[in-house]
Amino acid sequence: MFPEPATETPDLVESWPYTFQQIETDSPLYEYLSIYATELARLDAFIDELYEQRFIETATGVELTQLGAPLGVKRRADETDEQFRYRLKLRKAVASSNGTAEDIRGIITQAVDDDATSEITVGVVEGAPVLLFIIPPDLLADVPITSSQLSATLNRAMPCGSGVQIVSGDDIFTFYEDDTDAASYEAGFGEGVWTG
After folding, report:
1. Residue 31: in which H helix or E strand, if any?
2. What would the mean pLDDT of 67-90 be, rounded to a whole number?
3. What is the CATH number of domain 100-196?
């Protein structure tokens, strides 16, 4: 196992293996060790940056764009690193989804805010294989993609023939469907009521 490289000149001087040779601060050897320490520090920084560029969370620029290829995600024109990183993280989560309501809910809470799970309402669209997510507008405000782009991404996680619909807002107009009240249950378009 190799020791951690010393990147400071005094550390190199202290670990100099030849005890018969004293290194003075004004000597050419000290100057050489200073240059060597600078290059070691530069190499350490380069290795750290190279390591960081391998992960979606920390990569930037071209390296981040290249990380999208295995996931089948291409960077859009004028898309920032933040927006592209966000889409990559979602695509990665979508790829591991089994299409269950809980999986989709987990992806949505990752998409908006992990601490906001209690603020998201999950339901179904009557007569259609569609999950309905009602998300308060303040949670969607910080999302770097549009609601329709988020819906399209989530639809990829759903089983074939089913989908996701995202609704933003606190007051949502829906049709009251109470099958015990025949008149309201059969109400057509334009005859809906506010439900809360």
Report:
1. helix 28-52
2. 91
3. 3.30.300
